[in-house]
Design a protein that fits this description.
- This protein has 180 residues and is of the alpha+beta class.
- The protein has one domain: 3-Layer(aba) Sandwich (Aminopeptidase).
- It contains four helices and ten strands, in the order E-H-H-E-E-E-H-E-H-E-E-E-E-E.
- Strands 1, 2, 3, 4, 5, 6, 7 and 8 form an eight-stranded mixed beta sheet that branches. It has a two-stranded antiparallel sheet with strand order 9-10.
Length: 180
Amino acid sequence: MTMTVKITSLADIDAALVEALLDRAFGSDRRGRTAYRLRAGTRPIDALSFAALDGDGALVGTLQSWPVMLAVDNGAVEPLVMVGPVAVVPDQQQGGIGKRLMAALMAAAAGGDPLMMIGDPEYYERFFRFSAAETADWRIDGPVERHRLLAHNPLGRPIARAGRIVPRIDARFACGEQVA
């Protein structure tokens, strides 16, 4: 039986409900992971963050997107959108909710900044054209399995090859230095 799911803006959902869902999906120790540290000090991008509600209006899935950037080794800055976490309540996983959340993101992100994530390469490459091909020389603070550091550019242009992923707290600054 297929569940009726409505995709809506995550900004409309109580933050405590989102945190409770994330704890159920990933555990309360999730905040120590590299991706969480990278997002520290930033706020989700409302236009690229979504919630999945079941037919009764209960929260069953979330997808958050975050402003980060690649501080390129040549001094340039490439704005990126960090995708994740993509979370679905455990008893509804494998039911297509995560795929619907990702489809909403891909539609909303069309023509925008490149996307990056730490995720399952087989799944995200197969369904959403994310790849580790351009991220081999990206650096990120904290442990990460290199093959799980993925990127997708909605515009199809190459993304800078070498640099460090940092939070995009203020786009005028990267790593404490003013950027033109």
